[in-house]
Amino acid sequence: MQFQGGCHCGNISVILDWPTDATRIPARACDCSFCTAHGAVWTSDPAAKLVVRIRDAALVASYEFGTQTAEFRVCGRCGVVPLASCTIERARFAVVNVTALRGVDEQMVVRSSSNVDGEDIGTRLARRQRNWISQVAIDAAELTS
């Protein structure tokens, strides 16, 4: 299955190749102040593939907070946060904001809450390596991570 989406103005677009045998899409609503303020609900599958295209990298902010182990890509034009990524041992991992995808069958989406308060950095990075999308390509020369 393939889903497309991105930010509201189209500056950041995503193509998510979801495993064809998947019958559900897990969607985690993080309860941190940043995700709550943006209405972000994150999805990932280690077998998925993600391609991100950015028209104007100058309009994309990379925001880090807390442990500064993930970069939230925020469109400076429309304010939408379609993805977060991190680099672990020179490999890029990412999650996609399911609310920024088009054409998702809501019956497939299984929503849950997420709270990672108190999780140490090693545990956090190991969880991302296990669960986040590991095949990630970001097409914008100006973005280095």
Topology:
Elements: E1 2-6, E2 12-17, E3 25-30, H1 33-38, E4 42-43, E5 49-54, E6 60-63, E7 71-75, E8 83-88, E9 91-97, E10 101-102, E11 109-114, H2 121-131, E12 135-139
Parallel strand pairs: 3-11, 5-12
Antiparallel strand pairs: 1-2, 1-10, 2-5, 4-9, 6-7, 7-8, 8-9
Structure description:
The chain has helices at residues 33-38, 121-131, and strands at 2-6, 12-17, 25-30, 42-43, 49-54, 60-63, 71-75, 83-88, 91-97, 101-102, 109-114, 135-139. The radius of gyration is 14 Å and the shape is globular. It contains two helices and twelve strands; from the N terminus they run βββαββββββββαβ. The mean pLDDT is 90. It is mostly beta strands and 145 residues long. The protein has a five-stranded mixed sheet, with no helix packed on it. It has a five-stranded antiparallel sheet with strand order 4-9-8-7-6, with helices on one face.
The strand line-up of the biggest sheet is: 10-1-2-5-12
Please tally the helical runs, counting DSSP H or I stretches of 4 or more residues.
2
- Low-confidence runs of at least 5 consecutive residues: none
Spatial separation of the terminal alpha carbons: 27 Å
Mean pLDDT: 90
Categorize the overall geometry.
globular
Computed CA radius of gyration, to the nearest angstrom: 14 Å
Order of helices and strands: EEEHEEEEEEEEHE
**Helicity range of the residues?**
10-25%
Helix vs. strand class? mainly beta
DSSP strand content: 35-45%
Question: What profile does the largest beta sheet have?
Answer: 5 strands, mixed
The count of DSSP E runs of length 2 or more, i.e. the number of strands, is 12
